[in-house]
Amino acid sequence: MNWSITGITTRNTPNAGTIVVVSFLVSDGISSIANDVRVDEIDPNNFIPLSEITEQQVIEWVKAALGNARVGELESLVEQKTNAPAQDVATILPWNN
Predict the structure, then answer these.
(1) How far apart are CA 17 and CA 12, in angstroms?
(2) 52-76: string of b/e by CB count within 10 Å (b at 16+)?
């Protein structure tokens, strides 16, 4: 399962560039789910300047904020979307146009 960060919202307290909300995408290469999570409970004593943060660090914060159960639910939902049976689509008969 692939996790990626699609956006962040910051504030200037307690430090400039403090990340408070992260938008993310969970994907298996076929299906995906996008969502947001608050991550403003990050320890301010271990502040990392915004210019030094990596995507992997933010993904770890997202997963920590979500908790293991919610991470598993999101990954399961992506798998379910990918493995869902194809839906039949009603087709308009060409001679009824």
Answers:
(1) 6
(2) eeeeeebbebbbebbeeeebeebbe
Q: What is the reported pTM? A: 0.82
Beta strands in the chain (DSSP E): 2-11, 18-27, 32-38
Domains held by the chain: number: 1
Q: What is the pLDDT of residues 17-34, one digit of tens each?
A: 889 999 999 999 999 999
Phi, psi of 10, deg, nearest 5:
-120, 165
Q: Which residues span the domain enclosing 42?
A: 2-96
Q: How far apart are CA 60 and CA 47, in angstroms?
A: 15
